[in-house]
Structures are given as structure tokens and as C-alpha cells.
């Protein structure tokens, strides 16, 4: 098999995060901590997972980071924007995700990461405010200012290339409008301050215009519309999104495929979340919650295929709630009640109480996306990277494609893409004389 041409990584990789709150600072702290050998990057496929190459009998199972020419942790430098003026150390302390004993040894490195002034409009995130905001009224001029920020930060850090991963708050729910249908219409909308263009779209536009891969970690309408998808193809920039798959939805994409595999029916799935960090406060606004609700509720239909299995799933009642509860902080609780049925229609129940740490689950996703998108750019891949669906609640796919939500299928596709990019054959269940088991 011919190995694709991939430019070798050289120099520093700038990871830019719009938003320097709990998720971004936990990611930054974890990378610095791992570089100092103070902790391990648990949860990261790029750092810890192996990949099987060839038949099982060949016994070739290198780490992904040893198989592919990924940037190393020592190559990463940081930059970001936030409406708060706190540096990364102060922001991490305020987020209260990491303990002082884990943060204090990282103080010098994190204090050096100062947020750039944000492109922000409170109409799109009503529960958030702060003084560190650009005083530029025109959206095209704001986008140009963000492009200048990217160029300046690359010079300041000595980076040779960059990636951008949205780690900001959830914006109000928006539907694609006329300005989103073409590059020309979008740029005209920027010049005319079209209300359909939210701040996250300015960051996505700025990144793509600067040749910087972009990934959206929130449910915002950000780069998932024709104009920016076209622009990403035109500028040869890989993009991916949207909405990091962390707590409750992660569990759904693990459990639902199991029920379907066993042909167990589901009558109802009730989900509620208790969350007290900045994200929880933002989602206390109904319009921001609507954005999150759309990405959370679309998962089950895709996995269970009620149109194919109507007797099992056509009447499934699915309810999702998010409750802002300040005492809980970043230690989110996701509670699920699942009413299932089996042989002869007899009912059963499953209760799941996931006391997770939202930013702890999200931080390794930021790392993996940054490294994989940088690799994709060097492999000359552009536009939507569907193979990264593994990381998202609402995977972005090309027009006409159906999103895949089954985490095991997503994982299989991700690894097969990595195999091909590394010059190896994809693995199938027909390998090794038709007797090989399907593998991850």
C-alpha cells in the first residue's frame, strides 16, 4: 500500500483556544504537567492507545504516537481568548477543577499564558460577561482582528503552525440563514453585521482564512454550514465538530449500541444533569440550552434506527434536562433512567449515576483533536474530517452523509483512517483467512 505523503512536523505547534475557562486551562495544565512527568495524559488516544497493524499473528501493536508523525507534547505552545482577563493559572484556580497541589508546580508556565481580548457579544451568551473584549463594532473588522491575533501569537511563541479548538461557552441556538449559504454571502454578512453570525463563527472564519485547522467543542452553529465548509475546502484546511462528547452522552453512545446489539427494546430514556461551572451557568439560559439539547437528543435515533426497528424503538420517549447547581462546580452528575424491555415484552430498568468531572473528560479530547488536525493538515486533508466523529456529540459530516453516533463504529473508523494515513491496510473482520475477529 502506498503511504500518503505527510509533511514532517517541525518546530512548535500553537494550540489556540477561544475560551480560557475550565476546559482550556485543564487541558493546558495537563500538558504542562505531563511534560514535567508529574502526571500521565490519561484519556488521550494520541498519547496512550495502541493501534493494531496487519493480522493479529503479526503482533504489531505500536502506540499511535509512535506509528504516526504526531507533534509531541514538548512541541505544544498555547494561546487563547477570553472575556475574563485572568491568566491561565488564575483561570484554572477559579475554575476549581484541579487541586492546588497539582496546579502550584505549574504556576510559572500557566501564568505566562495571558488571554487575548475576545470577540464577544452578550446577545449570543446571555449569562456571560467580562471586561476583556475587543471594542470593534463591525464583524468583518472583528474577524480581521482575530486573524491578526493568530499571526501575532505565532510570532510571539515562535510557532511554525497552529490549530484552533473552540473551548468557549455555548451560544444561543441558531439556524443557518441566507448568509451561511456561500462564502460571498457570509463575507457580505460580516460586513453588514448580520445578526445570524455569532462570535464563534468569526473565530472559525479567521482560523480557516489563516490556514489554521478548526474544531468546534460546543454545540454552536460555528463552522457547520456551507459557506465555511466551502472555505475550508478552498483554503485546504481540515475542520471537525461539534460539541465534545464527555459525560452523559458518552455513556449513551456506549450503552445504546449494546441494547441494539442484543435487540432489547427501549420505552423511555430520561436524562438529567447537575452542573455548577461556567458552562452550567450559561446553559441555565433557555436559548443556550436549546443548542445543547439538539446535540444531546439526536444521538439515540441515529444509533437505534427506529425506522429499521420500529417495534423496539419507534415509541421511545427521550427527555434531556440540564440543571445549574453552583455547589456542584465542575463535578457534574449525569443521571439516567432507562426503561427497557426484553423477551415476551417484559419490562426492566437501568439506572446510571455518572459522577464525572466535565473538564477532566474534555481536556484529552482537546489534545487529541489538536494533534490529529495538525497531522491531517500536514497530510493535505481538507474540509470536514468525519473520521474524528469519535470525539463529538453531533459529528459534522459532508452533505448527504449520515452522522455515525455508535462510539464503537466511530472508533473503528478513526483507527482505520489512521492506518491508511500511515501507509497500512485498513482492518476488516475478514482478515487472516476469514477467521480474524473484528478489532478496535
Walkthrough of the structure:
- The protein is α/β, with parallel strands linked by helices and 440 residues long.
- The protein has two domains: 12-244 and 359-421, 3-Layer(aba) Sandwich (Rossmann fold); 250-355, Dihydrodipicolinate Reductase, domain 2, CATH 3.30.360.
- It is built from 17 helices and eleven strands.
- It has a seven-stranded parallel beta sheet, sandwiched between helices. A four-stranded mixed beta sheet has the order 8-7-9-10.
- A hairpin with a 5-residue loop joins strand 9 (333-341) and strand 10 (347-355).
- The protein starts with 11 loop residues before the first strand and ends in a 6-residue tail after the last helix.
- Mean pLDDT is 92; it is low at 434-439.
Amino acid at each position: 500500500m502506498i503511504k500518503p505523503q505527510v509533511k514532517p512536523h517541525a518546530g512548535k505547534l500553537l494550540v489556540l483556544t477561544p475560551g480560557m475557562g475550565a476546559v482550556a486551562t485543564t487541558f493546558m495544565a495537563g500538558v504542562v504537567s505531563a511534560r514535567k512527568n508529574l502526571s500521565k495524559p490519561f484519556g488521550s488516544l494520541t498519547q496512550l492507545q495502541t493501534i493494531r497493524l496487519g493480522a493479529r499473528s503479526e503482533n504489531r501493536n505500536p502506540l499511535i504516537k509512535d506509528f504516526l508523525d504526531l507533534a509531541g507534547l514538548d512541541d505544544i505552545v498555547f494561546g487563547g481568548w477570553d472575556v475574563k482577563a485572568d491568566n491561565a493559572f488564575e483561570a484554572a484556580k477559579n475554575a476549581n477543577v484541579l487541586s492546588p497541589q497539582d496546579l502550584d508546580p505549574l504556576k510559572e508556565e500557566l501564568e505566562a499564558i495571558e488571554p487575548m481580548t475576545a470577540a464577544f457579544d452578550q446577545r449570543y451568551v446571555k449569562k456571560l460577561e467580562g471586561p476583556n473584549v475587543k471594542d470593534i463594532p463591525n464583524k468583518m473588522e472583528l474577524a480581521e482582528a482575530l486573524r491578526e491575533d493568530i499571526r501575532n501569537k505565532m510570532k510571539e511563541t515562535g510557532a511554525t503552525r497552529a490549530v484552533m479548538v473552540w473551548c468557549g461557552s455555548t451560544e444561543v441556538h441558531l439556524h443557518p440563514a441566507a448568509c451561511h449559504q456561500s462564502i460571498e454571502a457570509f463575507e457580505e454578512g460580516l460586513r453588514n453585521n448580520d445578526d445570524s453570525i455569532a462570535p464563534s463563527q468569526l473565530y472559525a472564519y479567521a482560523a480557516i482564512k489563516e490556514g489554521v485547522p478548526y474544531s468546534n467543542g460546543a454545540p454552536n452553529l460555528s463552522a457547520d454550514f456551507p459557506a465555511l465548509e466551502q472555505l475550508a475546502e478552498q483554503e485546504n484546511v481540515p475542520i471537525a465538530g461539534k460539541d465534545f462528547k464527555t459525560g452523559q452522552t458518552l455513556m449513551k453512545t456506549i450503552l445504546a449500541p449494546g441494547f441494539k446489539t442484543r435487540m432489547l427494546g427501549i420505552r423511555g430514556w430520561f436524562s438529567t444533569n447537575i452542573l455548577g461551572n461556567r458552562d452550567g451557568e450559561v446553559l441555565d439560559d433557555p436559548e443556550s440550552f436549546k443548542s445543547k439539547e439538539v446535540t444531546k437528543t439526536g444521538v439515540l435515533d441515529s444509533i437505534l434506527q427506529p425506522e429499521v426497528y420500529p417495534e423496539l424503538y419507534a415509541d421511545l420517549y427521550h427527555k434531556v434536562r440540564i440543571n445549574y447547581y453552583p455547589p456542584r462546580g465542575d463535578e457534574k452528575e449525569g443521571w439516567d433512567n432507562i426503561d427497557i424491555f426484553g423477551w415476551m415484552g417484559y419490562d426492566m430498568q437501568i439506572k446510571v449515576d455518572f459522577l464525572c468531572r466535565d473538564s477532566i473528560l474534555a481536556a484529552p479530547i482537546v489534545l487529541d483533536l489538536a494533534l490529529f488536525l495538525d497531522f491531517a493538515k500536514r497530510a493535505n486533508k481538507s474540509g470536514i474530517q468525519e473520521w474524528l466523529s469519535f470525539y463529538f456529540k453531533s459529528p459534522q459530516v459532508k452533505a448527504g452523509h449520515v452522522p455515525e453516533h455508535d462510539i464503537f463504529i466511530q472508533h473503528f473508523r478513526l483507527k482505520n483512517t489512521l492506518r491508511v494515513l500511515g501507509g497500512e491496510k485498513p482492518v476488516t473482520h475478514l482478515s487472516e483467512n476469514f477467521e480474524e475477529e473484528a478489532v478496535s
